[in-house]
Amino acid sequence: MKNVGRFRSLILFILMTFFLVLPPLYAQEEEGKNFKYEITRDIMKSLNESAEQGDIPENLVVALAPLQGKVFINEQAFRQELVGALGRQLSAQYQSRLVDMSKIRVDWFDMTKITIFIILIAFCGMVLFFSWKAKTDPNQFIRRIPGLDAISEAIGRCTEMGKPVLYVPGIDDMNNIQTIASMVILENVARVIGEYESDLIVPIRPPFVVPVAEEMVKKGYLDAGRPDAFKPENVRFISDEQFAYAAGVNGIMLREKPAANLLLGSFFAESLVIAETGVLAGAIQVAGTANEHQLPFFVAACDYTLIGEEIYAASAYLSKDPELVGSLKGSDWAKVVLSIIMLLGVVLETFGVHFLTEWFFIR
Amino acid sequence: MKREIPLAITAIFGIFMVAQLFIPHYLVQDISGRLQDWAVVIVAFAYILGVANIIKINSGVICRRGQDWEYKIVMLIALVIMMLSGILLGKDPDDSLPIFDFMYNSMYVPMQSTMFALLAFFIASAAFRAFRARTTEAILLLVTATIVMIGRVSLGEFIWERLPDITEWIMNYPNNAGKRGIKIGASLGAISIGLKVILGIEKSYLGGD
Amino acid sequence: MLEILITWIAAFFTLCIFSFLYKDNPIYKFAEHVFVGVSFGYGFVLQYYNVFLPNVWNRMPWEDGGSLFTLIPLILGLLMLTRIFPDIGWISRWPLAVMIGSYAGLQIIGNAQGDLIEQVRANFLPLWTDTFSETIGNWFLVFGTITTLVFFFFSKEHKGVIGHTARVGIWVLMISFGASFGYTVMARVSLLIGRLQFLLEDCLHLM
User: Fold this and answer.
1) Could you tell me if A309 lies within 8 Å of chain C, comparing CB atoms?
2) Are C116 and A341 in contact (CB under 8 A)?
3) Which one, out of A73, A116, A194, B138, has a CA that is 20 to 30 A from the CA of A56?
4) Does A237 contact B53 at a Cβ distance shorter than 8 Å?
């Protein structure tokens, strides 16, 4: 654990150095210094191809060949060189095309992204500060989330009835952070199930999630002190097709009769197919997603629904790890700050002042 | 080492991906572009794991004559025919036996659209169940749903000519207010969990040992 | 001839899936298993032609236009496959770490850029406009969003002012959900009509 702590401090140090030192050092005010101009080997190659296809005259490519590899830091000088090499063959339009092709960014900080930069630094700072502070005070408050309390109850019910728990982690791949969050919840759920000694079935759509889910379930059982309870055949890849997956999950619901269905992750149109079949099968259902377009269906069909951010708070809630619970406080403070900024923006807009709106506009 | 190396890899790649948004330098952009191309390839390799998983689990059921084992045979046959006909014979109907295309058109497409169409029944049964709830929240949901549903068809205009306008107003304002709150909250949660994964505060995906 | 065969097999599988509405039955089970097998076979073949051939096989160092860099994702991909062998399966955590790290990073910036800042800016609305409906709407948007955010407070108990505001937040959410629900109903009904049209028109030529 000590190693991990030291490692984290090192990462934080590198991050701080990077984000605090680099931008002022490299942010270049003058637009002109942000680019260099070079006709690279790749550009020559594509020009050659265009010439072979007859799109541009061949002698143009021949005339450009001596310029390959020369670096210009000034657009003016580069244009002059082009005119010098190509003479009358070069139309203004073609000159601009060549300049665009050869333009390469060499600056180290994009000033147009400064808004995101400041907001990200401020928010991450808040989250890290509160989770660091929580280490010294392990009694962190977190409000009741009925949907998450229901998970433990549902698992208890499954144990009593001798039936398995079904965990559906949504249909998105790991490139959706909801799936990452769902995997973290899965580990907590597996731990509780390990303690209760019931079975856990995890059907999966994206193949890449299979190994991650296996690791999670294994870790959960290990933490519960029952590593032998892990059954590889219960982490099942179904199909990568959305509705074939839904059909497969329905099959499990109706034939293996889990007494609790936990639907947590990123869902799309299949959400209602799965949730309504769960109702038919008579299972207790806890659903949660941050995809706001599917929430209405979960609210209508499931016993409990975790709405939006609640699924990201789940791992803190279920593990009660003070560091994770503390990070939620950082998130709450961010909401307060954002609400104040929003109200400020509203007042300014009402009086016809637009600078804040423009500052928040990302190109 | 089984844990520390992956932890370091996650941190390095995570930080790099965040940083590349702010660094327009061509070297950084080039690497980030390549990384995103590589991700596609790694995901494609996971499909082989998917095949292995399907075959292992279902052949297990078949061997021990488990529940529905006959159907598992059907599934494996369908999978193998589709894969072999697509890869060995080519997926282009012009230069191959048309098995792949035939199965795609006669099985995949109709079953996919029919599963999707089942939603019409499921949405009705979900609405019916919601009707029986007696809380303030359920009533708000139902009243709004009913107004919007009627306002979107010609019956709405027949009942009251302003109903379509009201529907449009509901979609533009109250509907967006809820969505916006969810999106802002969820994005804060997403950033926070992303940060915790990169810094190794959430590290369970690295497994037990 | 082939066309007719395709139509009839398609109609058969359409009815098989619809039979689920009655209850789970052997023909639905048969269709479900065929669907799962065919769909994943299709997905696998697609990956082979769209990713593996163009991005790996045709870009090997010895191919024209290939590069040594192609070996990196190939090696990472092969490391993933070590999971099949339990003794060295832990090596697969390296490519997992590469992917999870990269995706977590991309999601941080995606959420900050696409949702967070964009949605906050969209709420900078004037509380006084020329039209009455827009003015009321803007009030609803601004205060509806803020009350919803209060509902998402986790570190304070929902009592007193925060409790009341959070309750309003839930109402805003329910109205929003109701609107989305009502809006989707007609879209789903039209999907069903599409399927019935296929059965009655293309298959039975009744329409």
Assistant:
1) yes
2) no
3) A73
4) yes
Cα–Cα distance measured from residue A299 to residue B178, given in angstroms and rounded to the nearest whole number: 14
Helices (H) and strands (E) in chain C, counts: 7, 0
From CA B43, how far away is CA B52, in angstroms rounded?
15
Per-residue pLDDT tens digits of chain C, which is 207 residues long: 788 999 999 999 999 999 999 989 999 999 999 999 999 999 999 999 999 999 999 988 888 778 888 999 999 999 999 988 888 888 999 999 999 999 999 999 999 998 999 999 999 999 999 999 999 999 999 999 999 999 999 999 999 999 999 999 999 999 999 999 999 988 888 889 999 999 988 888 876
Q: Does A328 touch chain C (CB under 8 A)?
A: yes
Count of domains for chain C: 1
CB contact under 8 A, A239 and C111: no
Q: Please indicate, yes or no, if residue C199 is contained in any of the structural domains.
A: yes
The answer to whether A48 and A39 are in contact (CB under 8 A) is no
Q: Is residue B104 part of a domain?
A: no
Q: What is the rounded CA–CA span in Å between residue B48 and residue B51? A: 5
Rounded to whole angstroms, the Cα distance separating B150 from B167 reads 9
CA dist C148 and A339 (Å) reads 11
* Cα-based distances in Å from B75 to A274, A351, B79, B81, C40: 20, 65, 6, 10, 10
Could you tell me which chain C residue has the CA closest to the CA of A349? C126
User: A201 pairs with which residues across the strands?
Assistant: A166
A244 near C CB under 8 A: yes
At A91, the amino acid letter reads S
Phi/psi at A196 (5° precision): -80, -15
* C90 is a domain residue: no
Q: Which amino acid, residue B125?
A: S
Q: What is the C-alpha separation between C75 and C52, in angstroms, rounded?
A: 13
CA C88 to chain CA centroid, Å, is 33
Q: Check CB contact of A52 with chain C, cutoff 8 Å.
A: no
Name residues whose C-beta falls within 8 Å of residue A178's C-beta, 6 or more positions apart in sequence: A170, A172, A265, A266, A289, A290, A291, A311, B190
Domain enclosing residue B31, as ranges = 1-66
Identity (one letter) of the amino acid at A210?
Answer: V
Task: Give the domain extent around C182.
Answer: 123-207
Q: Are A201 and A252 spatial neighbours (Cβ–Cβ below 8 Å)?
A: yes
Write down the pLDDT at residue C35.
97
Report CB contact under 8 Å: A174, C116.
no
Which letter does DSSP use for residue C57 in this model? G
**Is residue C118 in a domain?**
no
The rounded distance, in Å, linking the Cα atoms of B87 and B82 is 9
Q: How far is CA B40 from CA A176, B46, B91, B197, in A?
A: 14, 10, 21, 21
Token readout for C4 is 């007719």
Contact call for residues B45 and C84 (beta carbons, < 8 A): no
User: Nearest CA to CA, how far is B107 from chain A (Å)?
Assistant: 11
Q: Does domain A146-319 have CATH number 3.30.1370?
A: no
pLDDT digits (tens, 9 = 90+) for C14-35: 999 999 999 899 999 999 999 9
Cβ of residue A218 closer than 8 Å to a chain B Cβ: yes
**Chain B neighbours among A 242-271 (CB < 8 Å)?**
243-244, 246-247, 255-256, 269-270
Q: How many CB pairs under 8 A join A and B?
A: 226
B126 and B61 inside one domain: no
A342 touches chain C (CB under 8 A): yes
The answer to whether A300 and B174 are in contact (CB under 8 A) is: no
Any chain C CB within 8 A of the CB of A13?
Answer: no
CB contacts of A246 in chain B (<8 Å) are 115
